[in-house]
Amino acid sequence: MRKLILSSVLLTCLLIMWGGVVRTTGSGLGCPDWPLCHGQIIPPFEKEVLIEYTHRLLASLIGILTIIICITVWCKKAWRAKLGKGCIAAFILLLVQALLGGVTVKSELHPYIVATHLGVAMIFLTIIFWMFLKSNDTPATRSPQKGYYSLAHGILILLFFQIVLGGLVAASNAGLVCPDFPLCGGRWVPVLQGLVALQFFHRVTAFVLLFALLVFSLGTWKRTLSKMILLLGFSQVLLGVANVLLGLPLWVRLSHLAVATALFLALLATLYELRPSHN
Predict the structure, then answer these.
(1) Cβ-contact 170, 24 below 8 angstroms
(2) How confident is the model over 151-194, as pLDDT tens digits?
(3) Which class for 168: exposed (0-12), middle (13-18), buried (19 or more C-beta within 10 A)?
(4) CA torsion angle 49 54 55 60 (round to 10)
(5) Helices 111-135 and 250-274 sit at what angle, rounded to 10 degrees?
(6) How many Cβ atoms are within 10 Å of 127's Cβ, its own excluded?
(7) In this predicted structure, what is the pLDDT of residue 244?
(8) Residue 56 and residue 40: Cα distance in Å, rounded?
(9) Measured between alpha carbons, how far is residue 181 from residues 167, 187, 191, 214, 249 in Å?
């Protein structure tokens, strides 16, 4: 069971990364129809088509794996008591995500639909990773620290919205509407309209998050994950700056998404350690 859930976590991370490849290469409409691709089960062997089709195959694999996990959980009373609710939530989100995939194509990659698609993927990742942590639950995995549980909760929620906002920036092609740094169009505070406002708020939220991560990490410095969280936080900001100064190269954009996902999981694991005994 633990290996199955871990496989689902890793595949979901890979799918989120591959979604970044789809966005950055402009391959979202490589398959202009849904659920088929160019009206076929096996599509033409063209670059953009194969990138989008691989994304769909990965999603299908995760769907099959999720169904296997849910069936296994519900067939065993001990697992059902521990992971049953998580399975129900994961399965519902799986259906929602499949529908959103179709809506994303039908809407011709509307930025808000694309960002919602990413947001649901992150919620699904949250649930299955929490299930994995819960499947390995021992007294050693709970180490409450008064005050920091709520702070970690707040940071995690803010990070979630920042990741979704980053997806919206990418889907809206707003990554370079502020082509300079630390200024934005030569101003500290630009005219907050349209895509400029979107990019500016993404920058401001990044520094608010970094400050919150610094406070949290210093307050929980004895934890190994806290050091990793702080390192990932600084790395994420540097990658964001590199995106602007280097003109959004593919490897930097994907690294930016990968570090954001790693930071999200590290915070989630820390939140699990800090949770009160009744939670």
Answers:
(1) yes
(2) 999 999 999 999 999 999 999 999 999 999 989 988 999 988 88
(3) buried
(4) 130
(5) 40
(6) 20
(7) 93
(8) 13
(9) 20, 10, 16, 22, 16
For 174-180, the CB contacts below 8 A with 24+ separation are: 174/198, 174/199, 175/199, 175/243, 175/244, 175/248, 175/253, 176/244, 176/247, 176/248, 178/203, 178/244, 179/244, 180/244
Q: What is the pLDDT of residue 223?
A: 85
Residue type, 169: V
Count H helices and E strands in the chain, helices first: 8, 0
The low-confidence residues of the chain, meaning pLDDT below 50, are none
Nearest to 104 by CA among 158, 159, 55: 55
Q: Which helix (H) or strand (E) holds 276?
A: none
